[in-house]
Amino acid sequence: MVPLGTAVWLIYILPLSLAVFARWPALPVATAVLVCVAMALAFQKDNTGIDPTVAAVNRGLAGIVYLCLGFLGRRLIVTRGKLLDTDWITGTQVAVSRAVQGDLTAEKLARQVLQVLADRIGARAAVAYARNGHGHLRLAQWGTDGDALAERVADDEGHLGRAVTEGRILQMSLAPDQALGWATGLARGRTAHALIVPMRDGQLINGVLEFGLDAAPPPRVIDLFERIGDKLGIALRSAQYRQQLQELLEETRRQAEELRAHTEELAASNEELEEQTRALQDSQRRLEAQQSELEEQNAQLESQTQELEEQRDALARSRRMLEDQAQELAQESRYKSEFVANMSHELRTPLNALLIMSRLLSDNRGRNLSEEQVRWAETIEASGKDLLALINDILDLSKIESGKMDVSRDTVEPQALADKLVRAFEAQARDKGLTLSAQVDPKVAAFSSDRQRLEQVLRNFISNALKFTERGQVVLHISPAAQGIALSVQDSGIGIDASQQETVFEAFRQADGTISRRFGGTGLGLSICRELADLLGGRITLTSAPGKGSTFTLILPAAPALQSPAPARRSLPAPTMPEPAPMMLDALPGVEDDRADIGAGDRVMLVVEDDPAFARILYGLAQELGFRCVCVGRADDAVRAARHFLPQAIVMDVGLPDHSGLSALDRLKRDTTTRHIPVHMVSADDYTKEALAQGAISYMMKPVRRDDLATAIRNLETRLEQRLRRVLIVEDDPAQMLGLKALLTSDGVETVGAGTAAEALKICRSQTVDCIVLDMTLPDASGFEVLEQLDGDGTASFPPVIVYTARALSEAEEQRLRRYSKSIIIKGAKSPERLINEVTLFLHQVVSDLPQKQRDMLAASLNRDAQLEGRRILVVEDDIRNVYALTGVFEPHGATVQIARNGREALEALGRINDGAAPKIDLVLMDVMMPEMDGLTATREIRKIDRWKGLPIIMLTAKAMAEDQNQCLAAGANDYLPKPLDVDKLLSLTRVWMPR
């Protein structure tokens, strides 16, 4: 627009000058090029004015100047950038130098360095590691989660190890799932780039820094770390040296303090030595002064010295004699205690045979003894049990004297203790017309003691009080005492004369030891009580007068230190004669039942359950249905309670603490006084077939709903109210039908006959049938088809089925029948007796209500146990008396007994069975103590053989120590029974473990 000759192109200096202030070095050069292009274009547009050649030269020169200025501007920007980077690096170095100043620990130094550098380079997260042995230990982190970081990195592990090995800075671009994480209170993220910087201490790399960045770091960051890597390494080494120096200073200071203390002690010792030296010097002067006097008395002293030496030798000989005598007494006492303990164990072996054979005689299975002879046998058995109680007392006494009595600490609730003891003895007190009560002071809190030993002492007190009291009352008091608790038993009995109160507490001493005494006993009970009181850290006192009763008091400390029995005996007064233990039914903790409130005509339900919570549920249901409820938690207590209370119904768990509920069920159903009681089994395990086969009325698996429990109990109640039982006899032979009806009909049993399968099914659909006696061969169908139709027909009742047939059944057919039938009876010489046994069992008939003929047949069937009949039992026992007794137990039940005298013979017998040279064995009764090979070793060897891993083994022992049961079960035994053997328990355990 402007004619040539006007220097309007000079205005292009303005954009060129502005480009110099930009950050991009290429911008001035690009601007100069653009200016040159613009001047060239403008020159082509208008040639008016001055000579175009001059204008072209001017503009050409101006273009060259502009290009030079452009390159100068680029150089200026580059130089300015380097100056800025140098200034930034210098500032960062200054900040880092300030951060590492001061007496810093390595961790604090690392934290400050990370904070300064991460902020300067714009890092999101950072972590510092320092050399530690053959690896690097994490010192600090910045902006990241410490739990996600490695605590220690090995020299050759990962890129950190690579940076250490190569000794150079590493850069990495990472995927999002591999990147180092950072976090704030409100945000979380991951860095896309990682920068790993080694720190050098001279030629050694002593640390590593790692930074997480959003983008690749600029060159000045790399330059920065190249410059400060050595400084940071030296600073880290200095911090570590300072820390080590501080530790050394602390150690030096501590050693200096110890040295100072030792110096003070030495100074004090020196002062004492100086004082002693001065005292010795004074003594020396006095001795020198007395030397002349001593010389005069020297002759006399020599003679006296000779006499003293003779006396000293005599005293030494006397002391040695006393020590020898003390050792002999201690050895004799130990021998006596060991002899008493061993003899108590050895007495159990002949006593076992005596009790078993007296029991067999009293059972009179052959009906060949008179009533008087049966009473004699019962007297022998009762005397044997009394002897067993005496042996147990002697064993307890010997354990205490030999220091082998173990004492534990339990928390004892006073009210619960008193209630348990009163319940245990109230029946005995009621039989004697006495009042038994307990008074517990509410101020007495729970205390610590051995509950079992404490109960043993108080039971002996109460037993003696009931024995020596003919009228009046016996009261148990629990009250506070000075620094402890007083538990006393007060009676209104015969009292004790003062002259006897010094001696009656000695072992085998009795209140009345004459031949005309009115009260029996051995005098051991309270001698044991005295020793137990010593073990519990307490003492026993007595207040008594003839004719005014006695008060025995056990005083225990509130927090006793359980101690060993003292060898010295104290003469504390108290009379004692052990009484046969009353029926003890332990109550479940936290469960109150109705055992004390049962009266004539009350309906009673027995609950056998070791879980207090479930027992309380059953108790509540029993109350709703109008039952008095008794709750026990052990199988043995269940049998005793059933025989004592004769309940109308029993609800029993299978898994009980002492042994299986199936064993208790078997014992109840073998007892003619309790076999009629309907039993409902409840368990967490499935033993339905076993329980129903043994006579249980029903079986329910835990966990059980309350409604299902209520239904089961109502079914028990329905069975109680049902007086007339109906038995369906399915038999096509008219003669057999008439015979079976005559055999089974009684006042409480109605028999209904059916000659065909169709008629039997019709009766089951139209009537309520309590039991079916089924022949397998029928005109229109087989017994299998009848059972299958009953099982599939929802309208027909399916009661217990007893298969009564003359047909020989194969093993497969028996297994098929077991799905439906409660019992399979093959017709034969003894089948009527077995039929009576099975029918009365499943109908829950009271034995005393049966006709005499049926009672006789039932007794004969019980003598021949169907589950044991034809079975072979290997008895491993070295004592011929016990072998004879056990043979007498099992052979009347139809079992065959094979004998082995020790464990080695037992293994040889099983080896012959393996070889097929002898018939198979169904069960083993193994004694523990035998010559050559004991029972535990033999059981372990048997379990090593694959074929005998499932062979039932029941261990028998006369020792009956607390650890015996665990040792037997650990060796591989199925169960354990101590001697003297209880015949009922032995038979019950045998039936439970006998393979079916």
Automatic annotation (TrEMBL):
GO-annotated molecular function: phosphorelay sensor kinase activity
Region (Disordered): 265-316
A Pfam family that the UniProt record links to this protein: Response_reg
In-chain residues carrying the UniProt-annotated modification 4-aspartylphosphate: 653, 775, 927
Protein name (record): histidine kinase
Keyword tags: Kinase, Membrane, Phosphoprotein, Transferase, Transmembrane, Transmembrane helix, Two-component regulatory system
All copies of domain Histidine kinase, residue ranges: 342-560
EC number: 2.7.13.3
Reactions catalysed according to its record: ATP + protein L-histidine = ADP + protein N-phospho-L-histidine
Domain (Response regulatory): residue spans on this chain: 604-717, 726-842, 872-994
Segments traversing the membrane: 29-44, 56-73
